[in-house]
Write a structure and sequence with these properties.
Elements lengths: L8 E4 L2 E4 L7 H11 L4 E6 L6 E7 L8 H12 L9 E7 L1 H8 L9
Parallel strand pairs: 4-5
Antiparallel strand pairs: 1-2, 3-4
């Protein structure tokens, strides 16, 4: 249809500029999480290969004494602006080391399978 721009283009000052795709590399997601949870055992999976749908397990002593909602809020805070832009979906599991030891049967927390 005439008059419509493709989804990845923006009109700016009479010209078109290409909008960069909104995605975040898995290494950057992991860096953000490790910056906040230095003792964390992390497992991160890009669920779709598009770098915007992730599954994460974070095991950290920072979650001690926190409700599940508070734990997730800490993770969202660590990811900052990525949660309102580059990360479209995040399947999240959070545990203290003690809770993880109970549910995993003593696993080191390195595999989501």
């Amino acid at each position: 249809m005439a008059g419509f721009l493709p989804a990845q283009e923006l009109t700016f000052g009479g010209g078109c500029v290409t909008k960069a795709p909104r995605m975040i590399e898995p290494a950057e997601v992991e860096r953000l999480l490790r910056a906040r949870f230095s003792d964390a055992q992390l497992e991160l999976v890009d669920l779709t290969g598009t770098q915007d749908h992730y599954k994460a397990r974070v095991v950290s002593s920072a979650f001690a004494g926190k409700s599940l909602i508070e734990q997730h809020q800490l993770v969202y805070g660590a990811l900052g602006a990525a949660m309102s832009g580059a990360i479209h979906a995040l399947a999240l599991n959070t545990y203290t080391p003690e809770a993880w030891a109970k549910v995993s049967g003593g696993s080191d927390g390195r595999s989501l399978t």
